[in-house]
Design goal:
This protein is α+β, with helices and mostly antiparallel strands. Helices cover 43% and strands 13% of the residues. It has 3 domains: 23-87; 97-182; 207-300, no CATH class.
């Protein structure tokens, strides 16, 4: 910065800040409700500061409106709610739900071995964080849960949630609230509404369907191209193995030859069967094949 020509020995000074604009303020209830706004703002929104008797400190909020009457109604409603909480012995400066969700997600993602269910729960909580806004954990009620489920339906792709999805969301929210209870952020978990879970089972796969499938597979493998025949034969035996063992696709993907063991015949005239040790979303388990023919299907894959 260039020196002043008139005072060459004078040190250069930084540019002085412009003075703040004048505050436009209102006081109600003998100073317990204080409204104020900056007049130099392009959109002068009213802010409020609440002083609750017998409670130290203040509660400050943005009224999110430029209308003085609406701002006072907001501040008065806030004052009454804080007064009720104070009488009931609640902390008027409790933990906000959004802040608690952030803390919960950070704590869960910090663990080295994170289950898929935990990852999905964290994704769900991050998605519903905007719904809560400035709501505090100790302000959550049964009505909050009902409104949240309605909000989730509205923001879903089809504007409708299946009964199983609603049940899973409610379970994830309870897990989060249990964590908040352990952290002493809430005194108790709010009651959840009775969910109307309808029967949404998949249609079962009966013997007639299985016969139709096997008939189709016999024709499916017939092709002029030998490479296509080989690929379709592999697929047909793969389908037969899944159908006669009940293992999942993910379990079959990790299956190795060492995971298969023979089961001797228990009675004379019976064929020896096999058992498969698989690992999937429900953990490790051993599955006994429905028929000894599964051994033949497995050998065809060699």
């Amino acid at each position: 910065m260039a020196q002043d020509n008139e005072n060459p020995g004078k040190k250069p000074t930084t540019m002085e800040r412009e003075p703040k604009g004048t505050l436009d303020s209102r006081t109600f209830r003998d100073g317990q409700i204080y409204l104020f706004r900056r007049q130099d703002y392009v959109k002068p929104i009213w802010f409020c500061r609440i002083k609750v008797p017998s409670i130290s400190g203040y509660v400050s909020r943005s009224t999110r409106t430029t209308n003085e009457h609406e701002a006072f109604r907001f501040a008065e409603d806030l004052y009454n709610r804080m007064l009720v909480k104070s009488i009931q012995g609640h902390d008027i400066n409790g933990k906000r739900v959004s802040a608690a969700i952030t803390e919960y997600v950070e704590a869960q993602t910090a663990t080295a071995s994170q289950k898929l269910s935990t990852k999905l729960r964290c994704q769900y909580l991050e998605r519903i964080k905007p719904f809560f806004g400035t709501l505090q954990l100790n302000e959550m009620t049964t009505a909050t849960v009902v409104d949240l489920l309605a909000w989730m339906e509205k923001h879903s792709r089809t504007n409708e949630l299946s009964p199983n999805t609603i049940k899973r969301y409610a379970t994830d929210l309870k897990q989060f609230l249990n964590w908040a209870l352990e952290k002493d952020y809430i005194a108790k978990i709010p009651s959840f509404p009775k969910l109307r879970i309808g029967h949404n089972r998949r249609p079962h796969f009966d013997q007639r369907d299985y016969a139709k499938l096997t008939r189709y597979l016999r024709e499916f493998v017939k092709h002029e191209n030998s490479k296509t025949v080989r690929d379709r034969t592999m697929l047909a035996n793969y389908v037969l193995i899944l159908a006669n063992t009940g293992i999942r696709v993910g379990e079959a993907r990790t299956l190795k030859w060492r995971d298969i063991r023979d089961i001797p015949a228990s009675k004379a005239g019976e064929s020896a069967n096999i058992a498969l040790y698989v690992t999937g979303k429900t953990g490790p388990r051993e599955v006994v094949a429905r028929t000894p023919d599964v051994k033949t299907y497995l050998k065809r894959l060699l």
